[in-house]
Amino acid sequence: MLTDELGDVIVNVKKITEGLLLKPIPEPSVERLLTLARLLDHLDVQFITSGEIEGRTGWSSNTIRKDISYIEGSFASPAGYDRQKLVQAIKSTLGLDKPQRFCVVGLGRLGSAYLNYPIFSDEGYELVAGFDSSVNRIEILHSPVPLYPAYKMGEVISRFQIALALLCVPPEEAQKTAERLVAAGIKGIINFAPVVLQVPEGVLVRNVNVVDELRAISATIQCS
Fold first, then answer.
1. Rounded to a whole number, what is the distance in angstroms from the first to the last CA of the chain?
2. Over pLDDT 90: what percentage of the chain?
3. For tag attachment on the chain, is the N or C end more exposed, with fewer CB atoms within 10 Å?
């Protein structure tokens, strides 16, 4: 379960990154384009048609073509879409071709697990700092990432120009910590606390809650 959750965080970080762009793309299209990029990354073909994508994803060809119309670049041919060029174009349009820096706030069992998660760097995300209110916890954790007490968030986030944060604190601390992150310059937060955060306009929040996902899939099964 934790491994799946870590993998989902990569996707959510990408979604927040895209949300910081100026060009508006409907969120459902962004969701599908991210999935499409992951799918194409793992295929060993030179060209792929919208019909073949439909067969692999279940999305209609019209939906696929509409989503791809938001992407800048030249990747279509009589044989279909050039797979590599389309992947590159998706990543470029969504701002995923540039390194992104982020931090982890709250270094309990979940937060500390991210400190040694190698997939971040493979996907173009650089974890540059971890924060916790417990100085003792910071001292005993073994981490390849620099760790700091929570009161240094403003200084460190500004110094390293960090735009994204994984918020892994207890529910009662989430809102106050989110406010401190926003004040420090954070523009996107992935929130693991089961609370609804109040943030200013222009700051994006993605909520990750395994229980909510279990409820959603259970309800879908029940109603199908």
1. 24
2. 68
3. C
Report pTM. Answer: 0.76
Q: Domain extents for the chain?
A: 22-93, 100-213
Token code pair at residue 196 = 């609804």
Q: Which CATH superfamily is domain 100-213 in?
A: NAD(P)-binding Rossmann-like Domain (3.40.50.720)
Looking at domain 22-93, which of 1.10.3720.10, 3.30.360.10, 3.30.1330.40, 1.10.10.10 is its CATH number?
Answer: 1.10.10.10
Residue pLDDT, tens place only, 128-167: 999 999 999 999 999 999 999 999 999 999 999 999 999 9
As a whole number, mean pLDDT of residues 74-81 equals 91
Structural tokens at position 16: 């927040």
Q: Which of 99, 32, 92, 89 is nearest to 62 (CA)?
A: 32
Residues 6+ apart with CB under 8 A from 221: none
- In the DSSP assignment, the letter for residue 73 is S
